[in-house]
Amino acid sequence: MKLESIGTDIWIADGPDIKFMGQVIGTRMTLVRLADGNVWIHSPIQFHADLAKQIEQIGPIRYLVAPNTYHHLFLRDWQEHFPGAELIGPVGLPTKRPDLTFSSLLDPSTAQPWATDIDSVVFTGSRAFDEHVFFHRASRTAILTDLIVNVRLEKQSRLGRLIAQIEGVAFPNGRTPLLFRLGMRDKAAGARAVAAILAWEPSQAIISHGEWFRQNASAELRKRFDWLPLKP
Ligand SMILES: [Fe+2]
Fold this sequence. Notes:
232 residues; alpha/beta; Metallo-beta-lactamase, Chain A; four-stranded mixed β-sheet; 11 strands; binds fe (ii) ion
């Protein structure tokens, strides 16, 4: 596992594939070096000593961030290896994972400790889950997790291919998974979150599973969220 620098003070690392709903999907984490030199990690992938060493060369790990109640699988290993890091996750995750020690919860109504470098908005309105979306200003990068999935069909079994197509998550046209869209009870709320994301004018957008958007992020996001009532 190797860190890839993708802009000013931002890196990604792709982890092992995992199986989800009959599909083989990649895992990806994002790291930001904050202005104070500390490292902020979004959705840690499987822990690996060599990966941790590469990160420590960037700076001390200060924050481990779980963006939604589904991205918690590898947090424990990271917390064990970096007990000084603050683990911060969404409402509901401490109940789901009582074995983890959270420093605080993601709360869009209060300023996050990394607010100087990273903006955020919470995408709500689906019965499935809420997701906190982030924006690293220095690199103009939007950081999404599961709201858009864009997996390559070559990696899938025949069943996996079929599911990916039905879910609408096949590269290059991957978008919000069908199950999430079906669970949407307040499309206006989702549209407001996407409007906030677009207002950041991101030039690139990371997603956790599949091919992410290295350029034209605003246009790509607008297209993939076209199931919401977005204003032109
Ligand atoms: Fe995910």
